[in-house]
Automatic annotation (TrEMBL):
Transmembrane segments: none annotated. Residues 1-77 form the GST N-terminal domain. Gene3D superfamilies: 1.20.1050.10, Glutaredoxin. InterPro entries: GLR_AS, Glutaredoxin2_C, Glutathione-S-Trfase_C_sf, Glutathione_S-Trfase_N, Grx2, Thioredoxin-like_sf. This is Glutaredoxin. It comes from Acetobacter cibinongensis. GO terms for cellular component: cytosol.
Length: 214
């Protein structure tokens, strides 16, 4: 049985989780506390998730995990990728994670169930973002750039069951972004984007975070 070690908030972990859902492959999902450095270091030599454990092996790197599962079964990510999607995903990363990280820090994720786990996350991430409280106090206009990006995404979606018509790694990267975006309350989803993120959530077996959104 495959074991996948993740943080529930982690977008790279969402990518690794997706491939199990898309293959309909059973696996054990294990959430580590955010301040547990010893467990991942013992497995892959550094404090980084996701990690896949199988047959006594440990594998880090989300896209390596995806490639491994694809090779072990009948591949499902058989479609081409499109540069427009790569470009959209890259342009969205900065504004998305600036708004996502402070919200993740307040959310009831299992990796933050201890005070020390949550404090570890805040301490580490605020080094690059600045104070989370400053970002959360920016007000609704702080989301206008993300809403513009969502409106630009709509015409790029060719099919609600696969962004380019056939599943590809674009769907992995795009859904990971949409999953993180779902923690941000007040975003406006064009119909195509709404239909796509719901369809992909069901197909991958990964709930969106709408109910936790702040
Ligand atoms: N390149 C890695 C990146 C994984 C990554 O950045 N994971 C983050 C969580 S989102 C992590 O474990 N960071 C260390 C920490 O949070 O302490 C992958 O794709 O698997």
């Amino acid at each position: 049985m495959y074991k996948l070690y993740v943080y529930d908030h982690c977008p790279f972990c969402i990518k690794a989780r997706m491939i199990f859902g898309l293959h309909d492959l059973p696996f054990d999902l294990i959430m580590l506390p955010n301040d547990d450095e010893a467990t991942p270091k013992a497995m892959i030599g550094r404090k980084m998730l996701p990690i896949l454990e199988y047959n006594g092996h440990y594998m880090g790197e989300s896209m390596d995990i995806i490639a491994h599962i694809e090779q072990a079964g009948t591949p499902v990510l058989t479609g081409p990728t499109r540069p427009e999607l790569t470009d959209w995903i890259q342009r969205t990363s900065g504004p998305l994670y600036r708004q996502f990280l402070p919200r993740a820090a307040c959310a009831p994720f299992p990796e933050f169930s201890t005070t020390s786990g949550r404090a570890y996350f805040v301490r580490n991430k605020e080094k690059s973002t600045g104070l989370f409280s400053d970002i959360l106090n920016e007000g609704p206009q702080a989301l206008s750039g993300l809403n513009t990006l969502l409106s630009e995404l709509a015409p790029l979606i060719q099919d609600t069951s696969a962004v380019n018509g056939t599943l590809s790694t674009d769907d992995i990267h795009l859904f990971a972004h949409l999953h993180s975006l779902s923690l941000i309350r007040g975003l406006v989803y064009p119909d195509e984007v709404e239909a796509y993120r719901k369809a992909m959530s069901a197909k991958a077996g990964i709930p969106l975070l709408d109910d936790l959104a702040v």
